Amino acid sequence: MTAYLLRRLLNAVPILIGVILITFTLFFVVNPPDAMARMQLGQKYVTQEAIDKWKHERGYDLPLLYNPRGKGLERWTRTIFFQKSVNLFLFRFGRSDSGRDIGADIRERMWPSLAIAVPTLVLGLMVNVTFALLLVFFRRTYLEFSGLALCVAMMSISALFYIIAGQFLFGKVMKLVPISGYDSGLAAVKFVILPIVVGVVSGIGSGVRWYRTLFLEEIEKDYVRTARAKGLSEPRVLFRHVFRNALIPILTGVVAILPLLFMGSLLMESFFSIPGLGSYTIDAIQRQDFAIVRAMVFLGSVLYILGLILTDLSYTLADPRVRLQ
Amino acid sequence: MTWVLLWTDALLFVLVASLLALGFYARRQEHLRRPWRHVIRSRVAMVSLVILAAFTAIGLLDSIHFRDRNSGEVLSLFDRWAEPLRTRMEKTYSAPFALRLYTREPVYLPDGRTVWVYPRLRFGGAHLTDPRQRGPDIVRTALIGGAKGLALWTLAFVTIAFARRRRPPRAFPWHTVALVCALLLVAGFAIGELSLKYHVFGTDKVGEDVLYQSLKSIRTGLVLGTLTTLIMLPFAIGLGVLAGYFRGWVDDLIQYLYTTLNSIPGVLLIAAAILMLQVYMSTHGEKFASIAVRADMRLFFLCLILGITSWTGLCRLLRAETLKLREMEYVQAARALGVSHARILMRHIVPNVFHIVLITVVLDFSGLVLAEAVLAYVNIGVDPTTQSWGNMINSARLELARDPIVWWTLAAAFLFMFTFVLAANLFADKVRDAFDPRRLEES
Prior knowledge:
The complex is a heterodimer of chains A (about 325) and B (about 450). Chain A is mainly alpha-helical and about 325 residues long. Chain A has 14 helices and no strands. In chain A, helix 2 (about 35-40) packs across helix 3 and helix 11 packs antiparallel against helix 14 (about 290-320). Chain A is globular, with a radius of gyration of 25 Å. The relative contact order of chain A is 0.12. Chain B has about 450 residues and is mainly alpha-helical. Chain B has a domain at about 215-440: MetI-like fold (Orthogonal Bundle). Chain B has 16 helices and five strands. Chain B has helices spanning about 5-25, 30-40, 45-60, 75-80, 85, 135-165, 175-195, 210-245, 250-265, 265-285, 290-325, 330-335, 340-375, 390-395, 410-435, 435-440; strands at about 1-5, 65, 75, 105-110, 115. A three-stranded antiparallel sheet of chain B has the order 1-2-3. The chains are: A mainly alpha (about 325), B mainly alpha (about 450).
């Protein structure tokens, strides 16, 4: 087990190197720091001194890959590549282009993100699985047909409309919850309810359809036929036998996205002005703060790879037939 | 009038041409015709197809561009056709079918006093002298338009019925298709007739007709949904099949490639690439002659990036399928007979994974159209000057906070987007049911 984990972690290293190379190429090679500085400082009336000052303050005035003026190892370390990209490996995110400590920001902002993402995931899972099971239970009836039609209709609506409609209905017309905002501690509850509800509802269409196919795949297997032949009632077959076995793909699917919950939801957080990592990223994109975008790209890839490893582990835990090798 | 060929136009027409060629090829292949017959027999699929075809026609008409001699603007054939809609700008917001503006304006009376009134619109219902005539006039105009549409429909379907009178009836759901066509034509002509006199969906902040914006947005959605696929297909098919067929280090390399790309959060990669494009465009301003070229470049680039981020899923599916296929007897036999790798891939592997490609392409389409709206919200979507449903929603979102609210832009964007995506989803479902061998057995 330990050996397996270790090997998987080592496998992640080349992938992360690849990610760093891609971001480095995107951010520094395609567009030299001069162009970035000019864009940040305004296009036309900007002097070379202002550009140099901007670059120096943020450490962009070093050579890209190789510094001929350094001594020994410094030839490689005193470069943009080393300072800005390799440091990410040690989770040293450095400072954003506007001068804030990115690491501290991330640690502070992940809690609001989790406060939205975790309940949305758990509730959404429960709602989707329940509806999917009901659809399977009533299969080949008009109830299933209309349920499926409703699902297709629901997944044809853009997430933006769910958010706008939710804010308008519950926030503005009925005044049940504040339209947007956030508060610390337990006072946050009234702010997170609406995003969670909207998140769950907007996921129903595709979620129910997906879980339904999982259940349908399971229902054709031999053990189900055996259970029916034994004379078990249909609810018992479905809710005990099929449900338990279908949990394996469901759980492993959930495990894969668990780490990514830290990243938060871009849309929800910025629509409801929740100070999480999602809105952090959006703000960075809109302010064109490249340092934050770079850090978030790296963080996202680490979490994705973590998700992959966790998925494989959860297979062995949930299904004794699968062995790690 | 000089024709202008934008990047996305050219690619869109390449796509249409290759689809036609593919259709022509598939006509002669029995194994390809059978699943399509399944699709054709389905009423839902045909209704969706008619709606999609109507949208596509508008989108293609909007993709033939030329430079107007008088104004120097880059316009499309659709713009020329919808000239009244495009040019009849009001001052600012007006509600659907309104006669007056949505905001009050000061009027200076000759005796020095100022009164605030809702002024009459410049074009919307300007032909009416008495505002009370509006209701009957709307009904009359709609009826005239509807009658025109009905006449055209009758003409078309009588011709078809006459031409096909000797053929035996087939499984094609003629009645349903005819009904949907009739509805579309009547509604379309009624709205068209009305839009000459009123603003059917109102006007937006700068007074532009919302109906015109919604119709223009079709092309953006269509381009994003289709060109992205066109860009991603060569990567996905080529790499996926190679990885599955050769295994070994080729497989390792390709797997590494797509795991790496997949691990970067999609939105962030798109954001980073769009940011870089903006920096590039602002430093190389001279290369982009006009706003239209610039906006088109950004649209094309967006397709490119979306294509790069989305080929990994299909690639993985194709790799798995090829791993299975390469052990099949017919592939083994071909290899034993000394057929070259390239020929085995082209003749035995690729045609047999084609159904997966088709299913993925049609399923992805609606997702891409929906993604456009989200990207527009994050400001990394299409150019703000390009009309798209995402941009419409984005600009109208804040207007909900106004009192009284401006709801029509959102409503129009919702209506068009929902119809388009719903039709695409329903059609995709039927195509998947017909082409997926596992699902075919169930039914």
